[in-house]
């Protein structure tokens, strides 16, 4: 089975214009996304035209056609555990959940209460039961958006016991457990100690794959024991040249619970905001960049025997 992961996606500014034709919004990279059995990205926006902008610098929102564009590109589900899903408050989150339900498009990592936020998206592919969880480890205002028993919000890594329990619960229901994280330091290609510690917690709880976004630049990946971890996938469909235009799609070949092979397909965020597959020297430069970044991950570059 092959899985595909890509980074941060939203529809604002130049990328909002791409929704004039949702079928082609992602451009040529869509063929890479469609080739996988399951494709996941981070949806870095509320889907709403209501709500109150929160006291923060950047606010992202998109129309409902965002889900049509994601589906057309081959994306199967999205994480909404991030620092923009509540840009327009809990009204914006509620509208996003309603729009996803209306479109019958799976979202995970935030919900109307803690049980919903920490619940996995469950799917079965080629007879394998897959559970995907989303969680955020972003501080500042977004760190206060934690879902509770009585309040909507995001599944947060700041409650490590709840996070580990969610992974263990998913482990009981699935053959393969994936955690899609939102974490890291913007612009920094190396994972922090906080990230490494939490990745270890997730692995010990039973996660098979941990993939992250948020830093607006590429971080590298590798094996943490039998768990495959990729710390950061950078921007994907993005409104500005934030920190880096280097992007791409992470392809993982999975057999049972084991990631047998990983392959990164380099891309460059273009002037339209679309990620365009990289070729030639540009492609090699991104691969070399990832090889350099791998040295600070404390992860094994090769699958343990």
From TrEMBL:
Boundaries of each Capsule synthesis protein CapA domain copy? 2-240
What is the similarity comment for this entry?
A: Belongs to the CapA family.
Domain of life assignment = Bacteria
Q: What is this protein called?
A: Poly-gamma-glutamate synthesis protein (Capsule biosynthesis protein)
Q: Which Pfam families does the UniProt record give?
A: PGA_cap
Q: Which PANTHER family match?
A: PGA BIOSYNTHESIS PROTEIN CAPA, POLYGLUTAMINE SYNTHESIS ACCESSORY PROTEIN RV0574C-RELATED
**Which residue windows are transmembrane per the record?**
none
Q: Which SUPFAM superfamilies match?
A: Metallo-dependent phosphatases (SSF56300)
